[in-house]
Amino acid sequence: MQRIALVGAGFIGTVHAANLAAHPGVQFDLVYDVDEHRAGDVARRHGAVAVTDVEQIYDPDRVDAVLVASSTDTHAEHLRRAADAGVAVLCEKPIDRELDRAADTVAYVRARQVPAMMAFNRRFDRDYAELKATVDSGAVGEVALIQLTSRGPELPPLDYLRVSGGQMRDQAVHFFDLARWISGADVVAVFATGSALAEPRIAEFGDTDIAAVTLRLATGALVQIDTSRRTGYGYDERIEVLGSNGMVEAHRHRAGAVIRYTIGRAIEKGMHPGWFERIKPTYAATLDHFVDALDTGEPPSPSLDDGLRAQAIAEAAARSLTSGRSEPVQYPGA
Amino acid sequence: MQRIALVGAGFIGTVHAANLAAHPGVQFDLVYDVDEHRAGDVARRHGAVAVTDVEQIYDPDRVDAVLVASSTDTHAEHLRRAADAGVAVLCEKPIDRELDRAADTVAYVRARQVPAMMAFNRRFDRDYAELKATVDSGAVGEVALIQLTSRGPELPPLDYLRVSGGQMRDQAVHFFDLARWISGADVVAVFATGSALAEPRIAEFGDTDIAAVTLRLATGALVQIDTSRRTGYGYDERIEVLGSNGMVEAHRHRAGAVIRYTIGRAIEKGMHPGWFERIKPTYAATLDHFVDALDTGEPPSPSLDDGLRAQAIAEAAARSLTSGRSEPVQYPGA
Amino acid sequence: MQRIALVGAGFIGTVHAANLAAHPGVQFDLVYDVDEHRAGDVARRHGAVAVTDVEQIYDPDRVDAVLVASSTDTHAEHLRRAADAGVAVLCEKPIDRELDRAADTVAYVRARQVPAMMAFNRRFDRDYAELKATVDSGAVGEVALIQLTSRGPELPPLDYLRVSGGQMRDQAVHFFDLARWISGADVVAVFATGSALAEPRIAEFGDTDIAAVTLRLATGALVQIDTSRRTGYGYDERIEVLGSNGMVEAHRHRAGAVIRYTIGRAIEKGMHPGWFERIKPTYAATLDHFVDALDTGEPPSPSLDDGLRAQAIAEAAARSLTSGRSEPVQYPGA
Amino acid sequence: MQRIALVGAGFIGTVHAANLAAHPGVQFDLVYDVDEHRAGDVARRHGAVAVTDVEQIYDPDRVDAVLVASSTDTHAEHLRRAADAGVAVLCEKPIDRELDRAADTVAYVRARQVPAMMAFNRRFDRDYAELKATVDSGAVGEVALIQLTSRGPELPPLDYLRVSGGQMRDQAVHFFDLARWISGADVVAVFATGSALAEPRIAEFGDTDIAAVTLRLATGALVQIDTSRRTGYGYDERIEVLGSNGMVEAHRHRAGAVIRYTIGRAIEKGMHPGWFERIKPTYAATLDHFVDALDTGEPPSPSLDDGLRAQAIAEAAARSLTSGRSEPVQYPGA
């Protein structure tokens, strides 16, 4: 039984809380949030205790691990606290908005040797995991090209976008991680181009709402990512891997199985309305993996270093957006 | 908040227990089972109390409703107890193996006016509910033909089959209910023919493991049901409704979204391995409806009478299996 | 090179004419029709000659085979003429409206040993041929249940229906043949029930426009056929074969590959508008097989006997429509 | 009736010949090829005459139009001959391997005002035409992103690739045209990156066998093209258009409709083996459009200028492959 505390009781925090409470291998006792009310609500719903002093969380006598789902600017601090306390940590992305500070944090945690895992939950999507297993089995041969589609239904509020770090760091970063993970190869160069078509005002702070990104892998294989903030038809994700002797895809999901036939038309169910409906089961699966790793003593994966590398790709992509050329990826400390 | 007690802590009882515990509008305090151990296990898992005296369940000061998931031969008794105690009841099918006794039970409960609902959970399947709404909207015109497929992956044990009441009463009865519900019309005649192909020994006690059933509705519309105990490829359900100006189907489910392409072939995910993976979400949805009905004071649906009518169709189907002719359906008390 | 003459220059005659003209192994010189104009038009389009005396067709010095696509009541006569002349014959169904006369005709042709083939063209549908090959390979085990759907888009004119022989003999007969062919087993009993929902007036002459038919095979396997004269959404055919360890289906065709996604909906292409768009390629494939058989000296298949047997099933189905019971199939001469 | 002569009797010439012969609005009398035997074979098969002197083709007393399907290096010459003779022309791509010479040729033909059309046959694919109509209808809003997939089954012979002009000019050019046509916008910049993964030797002459291309349109919309010479699973094409309020796709084709279900798997038909099986019907549809244009006097489309513009994009793409940056597209004469 792993005693896991929760840091952060916002929307994603409540999702994690429900999974912690329902997990048969987890004892979920403590919740912390800067907003005491939010922490208290979450604690009450699941029979846990809300603590007001963050030190109570990082108490190795009471907790084995911490799940960090607090606001982005506090991730690095909580990672360091966990390292200092010698408790394991499962952390939402990113490690830190600044790549250098993120790299320092990873080095700090690594030196203290606590088990640490990035919550890149899409790796634990049932279909993506099967796609990855298919690629690893050699059934499609050597990876030649990966296509990733990541499209959100509606533009987030302008206030959010202004501080989000931009489409590459905020939205595409999950798919940079998927590209590395699926191919098992590092990214050597990135080309990105984008536009502000849904909301021209975001161009004022240098952001895009639609972008086409091309990654070149060390093997010579290529990756195409298309990413959009606004579809008009719901949330849309898909992955396709072309190999040297076959192809495998995880196709877009439909939100139901009903088809109506009329003259000339078959009207089927469309996409899920939002990202949460689509990827909700991945949160529990991510937690499962983390708990299994703690139980067996295996290092959990993806590691903080994976988080750092995805972030380094996002930095190169952001540079390419303005340079108009393929940019080399520089991995910190590599 | 509805205080709902659980009667029966077998496999389906544990499914109901988890849903009762997770439902925000339900207070789940009491569990009863003839096997005290089973009751205790379920109670412990969800912070409820196992009672050993069934009278403690039927106490209107402590419970508002009872969910009956005990063995088939005790359903009628629990329905009567609930009626006597004046508590609402959600009951697994059938009411009673004997149609006459079932009819008496329904009359008994009706006279005491407690809210009572049959747990025909397939009505609450997301896709079937949408299919029904499409039919009701008039989008496909008047119902002309319904096709229902119900195929289990593997033959249940012979010992179970021997006491199951036969394929019509045990397996097809859910689909007899769906046919009535979707069409909004009663069944006037049934033709059924079947074989024992997977297990010839079940022919010795007059049962079938594969059957083709044809229902004729009062409107002249037709229903085809194919039902099999053993597929060799997993659990398979589908429904198709042909109307006077269109068609709507709830197609078979696939257990994932990954496709591998090789020379000449696209290898996709197949069916769910068993019925439970396929219809698991319907149990929570059935409970939702029951709680909503209690909250609003509306009569819950499907009613016990719906249960009785599905059973009457099963009786006629069983007669047809041996008579070789279309048999009229006699509804008790109608 | 086979010299094949065409008898009948109506709509299907023109389809056959184009295929005869395009076939590299066929010399297409002669056309006959009771309507000289129609014969002349077809002949001109393909560089053939229209003959006015039917005797000129049955001249073994000029023709090796005759393709009979004339009106139903003349099929038997042309079959006998071909037999007398010693030329091969490919004949549209039925052999004769009356089963006894059909049986006499088959015996007559058989005695004279000319190669003769029924144009049950659905056997040559690309998908159905692959489905049959899959069944024959044993990949789904022993056949347990076959589902056949046959639905036309619009009710034919009442004047046609009045002389068509009824839905069993006119529409379902193709699917009776498919059931025998796919299963490799003969039909021992038939239950059929139907209604006149699209056009109540056809009930006056004992016909149906929607019917559910159940066949029992000699092996104990079952066949369900649903057949409708009017769908409101185009032409719809599909086949599904459940075996003892798997299932194979030839799914309904869509008329295109374009999907539009909007909020909650994916709007796809529907069915083909009519039967001809769906099964057009089967005519050329049927002719291919006939020509191959003539070239190699193998007996062409399906035989006239296959035609007779499908017709005998239709007779039993028609009896069942009024008797309300499962009717045994009596094969003439068997 | 348009009298159309054929220039070129290679593989594609024979496809065009069959379509010319079968077209009810075309009189197909003359064939020319540098190889008299090939011309003779084609002529014989369709009742036409093979001419040995190319001048006989460009005789306005005998022909209204010429279909040019000869070897690439002779296209420009035949376009000029047609212009001189005042006969219309339907020409396979490209106009000329050299963009400047191609531009001169277009100017030459334009000055003489003969109807001239590029045989970009994918515009006439049934699904692509419907996708284009959907976009034009406004049903998905303003075009934001187009995804095009173009993947051949097997690497062509090295000798062919050496003189093909490279993957951008030879394979991707069709999709550059589709991007312009679907969006109705011109391409302003191109980024391309590629590798020689299937056949490293082609890197020696600067070619790629897999490439990812990103186009930026004048509207700010983006286009992603992935193109591969070798899939290992057959021929694969698809198009997806994301608009400001919806999406439309023309999905990949399957070569049949049969599905076999086994434990955990649904084994479906895969892709067509080669490009010809997939796009065969587009040749007849292209000819239809050309003949319609001649009949009505409307200018046929796509024009030679469309051919020139697709070629200019290919030139920029080829430059980008080596420069590693987004290259502006320079349209000749624009």
From TrEMBL, chains A, B, C, D:
Transmembrane segments: none annotated. Its EC number is 1.1.1.18. It comes from Nostocoides japonicum T1-X7. It holds the Pfam family GFO_IDH_MocA_C3. Belongs to the Gfo/Idh/MocA family. GO terms for molecular function: inositol 2-dehydrogenase (NAD+) activity; nucleotide binding. It is an enzyme of class 1 (oxidoreductase). This is Putative inositol 2-dehydrogenase.
